[in-house]
What does this fold into?
Amino acid sequence: MAEIINMPRLSDTMEEGTVVKWHKSVGDEVAEGDILAEIETDKAIQEFESEYDGVLLYQGVKENEPVPVDTVLAIIGEKGEDIASLISGGTQEKEDTTQETIKEEAEKSTQSTVKKQIPSNVHVINMPRLSDTMEEGTVTSWHKNVGDKVAEGDILADIETDKAVQEFESEYDGVLLYQGVKENEPVPVDTILAIIGEKGADISAVLEQGSAVANQEEVEIIDDEKPVVVELEVKKTGEHSTETTPSEERIFASPLARKIAEDKGIDLVQVKGSGDNGRIIRKDVENFTPLAQHTVGSESVASPNIVAGEDKHIPNSSMRKVIAKRLAESKFTAPHYYLNIELDMDNAIEARKQINALPNTKISFNDMVVKAVAMALKKHPSVNASWADNEIVQYGDINIGVAVAVEDGLLVPVVRNADQKSYTQLSAEIKDYATRARDRKLKADEMEKSTFSVSNLGMFGIESFTSIINQPNSCIMSIGAIVEKPVVKNGQIVVGNTMMISLACDHRTVDGATGAQFLQTFKAYMENPVAMLV
It folds into this structure.
């Protein structure tokens, strides 16, 4: 008897899943324990094993197409078994509505028409979903041009996701017949990326499906980019012109503005409006000052031609959009508050000198901060936590996210089990992450599962700043520059070295006293670095 396998819920927060790769095809024999597919959840990609023996009779989900949990994933049964009723029935919990049925039939009709027109020797490649949060991609560089021969495994293009730039390989042999995406222009996932087939193959049926909207958008953009040139010329008094005089132009002004202008003898043509659509309002007239007084018979000073500055419209990259979305969600869902503390860095400076005097050793103050944070979190586990709807999760591991500025945004690689690593281990790992982050070579799993984050702008001379919490973390620490200034020690004013620290906390999980106690412990470690070695 055939067995229906639904899309499983592989994590507690999973609402939909994506088959990134099928390991079995329809008609293949399947044994219990065989890997059916690799499924991408909201957290990771996992191998999914079959619980049944038999033949794979049906695949209900295409690769790289997200579907809700409990959607029919596959049907396994005996060879030749009739499963028509199972397929038409769908999942047990699937709701059938007239609107959905009409939509599906229309899509099937369109797809079938297109498929009939596409030759069998043509392969359409869509923009792939290369990460779980990717919604659009950008081709940063094409490695093949139209007309080039392509072999399976050849690099077609470099594709920028919201996390990294990845090389994208061809799965087909043939000739590159079409490039559907221009370099450095972001497009949604599943947009036609390229078409590969035999030389001379007819691909007009595919191209007709998606060109009209793109062409319309291009025209609008071109019209919107024209520079504006404003020419100002003051003529000699008495010179005649056949052009429209200022008094004949239509002026948009409020009645009160007109009244004030009339009383003061101000020509409204000379007044620049600050209201909607350039409308002149009261304050524009009251604040107006003539540029020059003209005397009859005198020659005025000619103004130069003024070219209006051209605005730049810079498309948002996938990374920038994700940063905007996540930080906005954090700022407006987590009630932030901030704690500030000043550190005496004299001992830390001396300790760093001694450590760096050792052979093959070089650590930064940032490395010392990460170590001190990890040690303090060990003593204050309530800070190493996340808010959930019905509970607070305190993590057993201490994983520190270290913010790294990159060309188009910010990446946060994660130093795992930071409390168990030495200064030199932390230094080497953070340097490696920072280098690969700037080269966009980090893997997705190297930026996941942080429990606390740090951000350092001290190298730019910033003495103090605050950060937005990197959810699901409950806190993020902002590290300022070391400043040499007068301080009081033992009742005497002396020259000292200080550093400002700001801690942003989510008040849902970390109360003020809890955050303050954590900072006291952190301060003790930083002002006495030897204590971290005990």
Observations:
- Confidence is low (pLDDT under 50) at residues 91-99, 112-116, 211-248, 292-298.
- The first strand starts at residue 3 and ends at 6.
- The CA atoms of residues 374 and 420 lie 9 Å apart.
- The longest helix spans residues 98-117.
